[in-house]
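Prompt: Have a read of the protein record below and flag anything odd:
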Amino acid sequence: MDTQFLNTFVAVVDHGSMAAAARVLNITPAAVAQQIRTLEREIGAPLIARAGRTVSVTEPGSRILQRARDLLRDVADLGAVANDDATAGELRLGAGTNALTGMLPDILARMVEKFPRIKVFIKPGYSPELHRCVESGELDAAIVLQAPFILPKTCDWELLREEPLVVLAPACMAGRDPHELLASQPLIRYDRQQWGGRQADQYLRLAGIVPRERFELNALNAIAVMVDRGLGVSLVPDWARPWPEGLQLVRIPLPRAFEPRRIGIVWSRSTIRIRLVTAFLQEARAAMHTHQGAGC
């Protein structure tokens, strides 16, 4: 079986049409169709259902899709393994929404400059999901919140950044008591389904504050915009920039000590790409050190 045909199958599924896959693969749509037909004959089942110019994956195709992805990833790693080359191959990373726009771009900018031969796949998601993906081997590493449970022995975790809870308020409320704001102003609550949201809820309970809840959502940037528009105040982790442009906000520290939200990297010790993971860790440490030195 030609792995190029498997690659074509995955490209068609990912891009939704023969024509789109052809553009990505730099071959003709006719060649894409021919490779899919050949693969279907070898597999012995239809993999793609055609409907005009669009396509969808069939049930047999869906069953082999993840195995095809895994096989292609392993094939891509063979050269690096054979040549003992730590600077080549594909690194599979996960990252939460804020890490995608905050920490990760700076880390990757350093990494691709030093290791131009690497290829990086990035899966966005929430920390609980990304922890499971690392544990299962689907991902090599992920930037996540520290898990509120003991990690399996196959995984490691390293702290990158601590984010204390702050009261986010309109700029006109600068200098006011944070507990008074939380008790008197409408609260835009950080989703309690998220680990950071549960921390905020714990603080409110410990401080004996019963808020006037107005909204509850899991998007920190959206919370910041709502606060700027005068819809209320919020109790959130002091997350890494960039923030939305042009907001007139203040971040008011809390009067009592409370455990910060901790963000770091979780990785699988057993991944075949452990040297790429090690290189990623080194560049992450260097990027965080640069940010701290610049006062970010």
Notes: The chain has a mean pLDDT of 87. The domain at 86-162+262-293 is CATH 3.40.190.10 (D-Maltodextrin-Binding Protein; domain 2). Residues 182 and 201 are 12 Å apart (CA to CA).
